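Notes continue from the previous slide.

Worked example: a multi-chain complex. Inputs as given:
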Amino acid sequence: MDRTKVVRWIIGILSIGLVVAGILFYKSILSYVIISFIIAYLIAPIINYAQKFHIPRALSILIVYIIIIGLIVILLNVIIPQVKVQAEEASKFFKDIVKDPNAFSLKSLGLDGLSNFLDRIQTRFTFINIDEYTQTLGQQFVTMLNQIPQLIISSVSQIINILAFIIVIPFITFFMLKDERRLFKTFFSWIPNRYFEFSIYLFEKIEDSFGRYLRSILLETIIVALMSYIGLLILGIPYALTLSIIIGLTNPIKFFGPFIGFVPVILVILFSPVPNVMLIYAILMSLVVQQVDSNILFPSLVGKGLGMHPLWVLLTVIAGGYAFGILGLLFAVPVVFLIKTAVQVSATSLKQFEII
Amino acid sequence: MKLKEFFTQKPEKVQEEKDLIKFLSEVELFEDLTRNERRNLQEHLYQRKYKEDEIVFKKGYPNVVMYIVKEGELQTFIGSLEGENIKTIKPKDFFGEIGLFLEEERTATIVASKDSVLLGISKRDMNRFIDEHPRAGSKILRRLASVISSHLIATNQTLLCKREELDDLKKQLQEKENELNELKTTQTEEEKK
């Protein structure tokens, strides 16, 4: 073998080793970088807009930070205590139900016809006890429901350390935002001339579709939560704020989201002093919100949609849920969409650029 | 590390940036821009180095990037690379500007004939810059329109010259044909005799 070839091989192997070592070394902060990137990505348009008026990037980032801190303070002082009180009340409420042996009895619904029917079945088939079934089922469901907040918290905290969230992430985000253009320049300067135009093309195409998707999903979440909040307030259903936040957060989950988000509403209505008829109104309200969301908000914000077959989206959500739990439910579709876009764009443009 | 150092760039980087901003004022397209506008524009430029005989892009590639020549020299080919080059691109010239307006593919192949340094700006960044800085954008677009118009006038002129040449050639051809015909007729008459 040629001597230069040997040297090339050695250098190649060494650099691969270096990259692997680097990944292993920085592995633990990778999630911070990804989260910072997402946050920076969402804030970037504001900073770019401010730059138009000759406001230095560093300054406008600081202003945005101060605003965000202000919002968080408001959140901590106003909304969180309210949510906490509501959540505590709700949880106590569920616990009381669990203690009450007759809570899930169909007889407690106060429908004479149904009660009589149940009694008749009871007398004819002594081995069937419908009431007992519904009671055990209901109790199991409520205990499961009580565990949901803990489940969410534990799965999120697996990834993010709260302290890191407060200190490291704003720091990384700051530099990502401030040196946005320089980071791009450095990144693209590594790419050989032959692939320069292709990489810019790929990057822009992906950014166009995925970036808009990400931003509009965030906006959609806020609008849906707001609409639900107003609806629930009008209906006079208790814990409206907590419920609407849950509805908003679960909304981006394709297909299942609206149903998952609506389960707490059903439970609250059934087990609170609010008349059960409200359930129908609440369902109507949710239907209206969903129709507005899927027919007006989603098309106007996300545009043509994902371009993925509904069945594929459904399977992706299920698979994501199996693999990564609640976070999987939320992020499976965006990640698959991102990969799909990248593959699609490269498939057509690699040929155009005569790379393959 | 002092806080100030943390927030400011390295001196050589600053100098590089200053040079670039100064260079941009010499490019026809950006002549009218203020320093601040040029500084903002500069952030979107990618500096690329090309070796002699390296291809920048080929005819048929998608329109992605517009280039400004900082140093070196490049050749434009419309046909094959062995064919005749149409235009030589010199420093402060730019190419790929058609891509800003048309979605079509590249209409020519550009090859560096000397070691060159190019400043590339992506079509999307350029359009975004024009949108975000309307005042600067209108200046750039006006310049671009005047450049393209003068290209058009020059092209029209050459077209006119070529047409005149063609007419001349046609006339000459006609005359030669007439002469040939006369010769033929005289020849046949002589043969008859």
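Summary box: Chain B has one domain: 3-155. Residues 3-155 of chain B form a domain with the Jelly Rolls fold (CATH 2.60.120.10).
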